[in-house]
Amino acid sequence: MTLIKRAALAALVAAGLLAGTAQAQEAAIRKNLAERLPQLGKIDEINKTPMSSLFEVRVGTELFYTDADGNFLIHGQLIDTKQQRNLTEERMEKLMAIDFSALPVKDAFTIVRGNGKRKVAVFEDPNCGYCKRFERDLQKVDNVTVYMFLYPILGPDSGEKSRNIWCAKDKAKAWLDLMVRDQAAPAASCDAGAIARNVEFGKKYKITGTPTLVFADGTRVPGAIGAAQVEKLLADAKQ
């Protein structure tokens, strides 16, 4: 057997041993955590981290860290000090991303400014003060289509105001009248099932606050950001 063949065989054996070790470690972690911490819930995924002997444990969108035997569990931030990167934050951004094409746009109404080529979806509650501040700042952003998802999570009155807006003849105008000009939409009734579906969608994707923005590249941003940051994220989404 030539040296090249021997080296190739050794590499295959090593790879097989590593794969077997990784599978055994994952099995041990799953078994021990399930037995010792049943309240943790179903483990969806286990991955090695850049830190030696530390494993990421994903439960839904929650991240934990453990050793190879599942003897210890850490709930916190993993930071790469050499590269100055928050690895937990980066991983969460990927987990929380929403495929823009998966958004139920039939349950939203649109606000189009300029040529409308750039796209962003926004989940907002009509009683949200931060949303009002955000909407007033968003008036400075041009050439954009905003998919507006009514997301009443702040109380019963939020649901009523959302229904009045959804049932208005001109939804976009009724929304901006309320959020930008403090003019409430008159009482109205219609099939407002879209609003309930928005809430269910938000629960599925763990949208817990308003406003929450989703850009065309899947980037999700919680909170009332300024027009300059919206512009930057719209530009990044096109790259």
Structural notes for this entry:
- This protein is 41% helix and 19% strand.
- Strand 2 (55-59) and strand 3 form a beta hairpin.
- The protein has helices spanning 3-36, 87-96, 129-138, 156-166, 171-179, 193-204, 227-238; strands spanning 45-48, 55-59, 62-66, 73-74, 79-80, 85-86, 109-113, 118-124, 144-150, 212-215, 220-222.
- The termini are far apart.
- The strands form three sheets. Strands 7-9-8-10-11 form a five-stranded mixed β-sheet.
- The protein is elongated, with a radius of gyration of 24 Å.
- By secondary structure, the protein is an alpha+beta fold.
- It has two domains: 3-96, Roll (Nuclear Transport Factor 2, Chain: A); 100-238, 3-Layer(aba) Sandwich (Glutaredoxin), CATH 3.40.30.
- It is built from seven helices and eleven strands.
Element layout with pairings:
Elements: H1 3-36, E1 45-48, E2 55-59, E3 62-66, E4 73-74, E5 79-80, E6 85-86, H2 87-96, E7 109-113, E8 118-124, H3 129-138, E9 144-150, H4 156-166, H5 171-179, H6 193-204, E10 212-215, E11 220-222, H7 227-238
Parallel strand pairs: 8-9
Antiparallel strand pairs: 1-2, 2-3, 3-4, 5-6, 7-9, 8-10, 10-11
Helix and strand pattern: HEEEEEEHEEHEHHHEEH
Q: Which CATH first-tier class of the largest domain would you pick?
A: Alpha Beta
Number of domains: 2
Number of strands: 11
Describe the largest sheet: 5 strands, mixed
Q: Do you know the CATH architecture of the largest domain?
A: 3-Layer(aba) Sandwich
Average of pLDDT: 91
Percent range for β-strand residues: 15-25%
CATH overall fold name of the largest domain: Glutaredoxin
